[in-house]
Amino acid sequence: MNMSQILKHTYTLLIILMSFGALAQESVSDDPETIQNNIDYRVNQAQFDIESHNYFQAKNELDEALKLAQKIDNKKSLGIIYSKIGKLQFITEEPNEAIKSLIKANKIQRLAKDETNLAETYKVLGNVYYSKKEFNKALEYYTSSHSLFEQANLNNYVAEVLLNEGKTHLALGEYSEAKSKLQKSVVLANRYELDKVLSSAKINLGLALYKLNLKNDALSEANEGLSIAKNNNFVNVLNEGYLIISDLHQLNGEYKKANNFLKKYVFISDSLLEVKRNNLSNEKRIQLLTDNQTEYQKEQSADLEEQKAANDLSKLTTILSIALITILSLLTLSLYKNNNIRLKTNNMLHKKNSELIVSKEKAELASKTKANFLSTVTHELRTPLYAVTGLTNMLLEENPKPEQIQHLKSLKFSGDYLLTFINDILQINKIEANKVDIEPEPFNLKKKITNVIAALKNSANDNNTKLHFEYEENLPENFVADQIKISQILINLVGNSIKFTKDGDIWVKVSKLSQNSEIFNLRFEIEDNGIGISKEKQEQLFDSFSQGSIQINRKYGGTGLGLSIVKGLVKILKGKIYLESELGKGSNFIFEIPLKYTEKEEVVEEKKSYFNDISDIDLENINILVVEDNKINQMITKKILNKMKLNCDVVDHGEAAVESVKDKAYDVVLMDIHMPGISGLEATKIIRGFNKEITIFALTAVTLEDKMHEFDEAGFDDIISKPFKQEDFEKKLFNALMGENHQKAT
């Protein structure tokens, strides 16, 4: 084989090898998911470069990402990239160019309905207009950003927007609005541990308070914000803080302190300016270009060296190279195939993972939406019910005319029925969310069932139905369990039997199935000879809102929730429930639960009369503040307190509550939650900032369990649910107001 033939074969093999390489490269580079991964990497790298003040590198990364996003026409990525470019242009002091880029991002994100990133774009636009001193324009964009972040339930982002809104109101001289926005920002920043936002918000809040002539509070807030910035080395916040505190001291006539803080401001300001100049200088730009050119020259030199070495190879080396290239070609082909398989597998995994993440987010959003919906509906229903039941009880106690009594009792019945329905819905929600706590206590089971039967006897008499109770002989009576849940189960099941049994009998039976040491497995039966249930209806009987038929629902009434609640409660008590029934002959509901035997007797709490036994002199110095925006509820609560010989002041929003507690010494605050302006939660947090001792009750219609932690975090001592039971309300107030005084007296 002569030299020309060897070179010819070598050239052919090289062409094959290069073709495989090009094919593999083209396959990878054209894959949309690979391109998207490349885009995401470049955007993240650009963000890192921005934070590191490497602005030119960030610009290069964003330009490359933009080309790739245009190639696959990914609208979401295009919107994010234009928004980042606008942010970078704002940092590099090109405000007009920044606005153009951000407007592009705005249009794309609105079309793509990418509301979360659109909120971020609005925020940056607000920052640009703020820097141009177009404050009203800035405020418009901040308001839009605030609204979108709130809709997405991203309250950690809302904190920064509120800070920016507050600073803008300060610049416009609108100090009350600035104070309100900054206080809300402080609350959210505290909740989500956003120290940078918290420090800046407190510093600016200090300025707002000073402008509102609250000088002591002003310096306290500003110094606290400055301390947080120092501890975390937030240089930009320190720079802002030193200037504001210098101004505050100067306004106070403390010129020496003002001068010291001004010097610190000038020093940090100069340092920040120097860093910015270094990263924006022409020398830096030239250095980057030089580095790129040097790298290119090195690559060219390496290629020349390799070419020279190749020309010096001997014939033997060429033959060996051909053999080696052949082997490498086969290996490359194998690797290419494996790479394609791996790439497809990875793409599939990425896709499935993305689908799972989206499904998870949708499920979480649906759960939050359901909880928020139930919270809102519950509040909106219970609030007017508070007025209905409160006014009805008052009218019944005020000697109504004989012909009015029956109407008032009917009204009370309707109110109680609606309240039962709402409570049933809440109970179902708690059971489904696994948020029902078990509260075991010693109790007498036989006595408990006897009391339930006695309470339902009148209903049974109305249907001409007799109730019978059989308790197995030698079965212990005292057990430790959640007696309230057992009562709920029995009331629902016996009440259900009464509803569907006329001119008949109902038997309540309790017997022992088995015993393991102190644990008794008990069997409860509620048997009747009523209308019975068909086989096809029995299957869905324990489902929510399910009854035998629409006709049965109309004829016998009820919500269709009772048996669903029973099933959930039995499951919580680690038991099981089943049904034996035949249409026209009756039904037998059977449930089995384990109960722990105890020798302890049940502790029965005696009913107390609270404020009736206390003289007017003891009560005249007690001050109660009622915070409630509903005028009818204000009147009802005030009348209830007056009947208890207690005087109160009434305000109708959270801001007024905060000012009232500052101005006057109150013993108890009854705080509504949903109000215009700041909510009861936010007002309580602000009060706790300067008064840790005062007793604050949440007087609210919100009762969902997943909201309870918010009440604890806000600083409430207890919760009184509307509409409340008079005795419970009196007991809580008595313990809060008179407990300490009685201890001193004894």
What can you see in these coordinates?
The chain is α/β, with parallel strands linked by helices and 746 residues long. It has 28 helices and twelve strands. The protein has helices at residues 3-29, 32-51, 55-72, 75-91, 95-112, 115-131, 135-151, 155-171, 175-191, 195-211, 215-232, 235-251, 255-280, 282-311, 315-397, 402-432, 445-462, 483-499, 535-538, 550-556, 562-572, 616-619, 631-643, 654-663, 680-690, 708-714, 726-737, 739-745, and strands at residues 441-444, 466-471, 478-481, 505-516, 519-528, 576-582, 586-597, 624-627, 648-651, 668-671, 695-700, 718-721. Strands 1, 2, 3, 4, 5, 6 and 7 form a seven-stranded mixed sheet that branches. The protein has a five-stranded parallel sheet with strand order 9-8-10-11-12, sandwiched between helices. Helix 2 (32-51) packs parallel to helix 4 (75-91). The protein is flat, with a radius of gyration of 37 Å. It holds the Pfam family HATPase_c. It catalyses: ATP + protein L-histidine = ADP + protein N-phospho-L-histidine. Residues 623-737 form the Response regulatory domain.
Q: Strand content of the residues, in percent?
A: 5-15%
Q: Could you give the count of β-strands?
A: 12
Report the uncertain regions: 20-28, 291-296, 545-557, 740-746
Query: How many alpha or pi helices?
Result: 28
Determine the structural class based on helices, strands and strand pairing: alpha/beta
User: Helicity level, as a percent range?
Assistant: 55-70%
User: Could you describe the largest sheet, including whether it forms a barrel?
Assistant: 7 strands, mixed
Distance between the termini: 120 Å
Global geometry: flat
Pfam families: HATPase_c (PF02518), HisKA (PF00512), Response_reg (PF00072)
Enzyme class: transferase
GO molecular function: ATP binding; phosphorelay sensor kinase activity
Organism: Mangrovimonas cancribranchiae
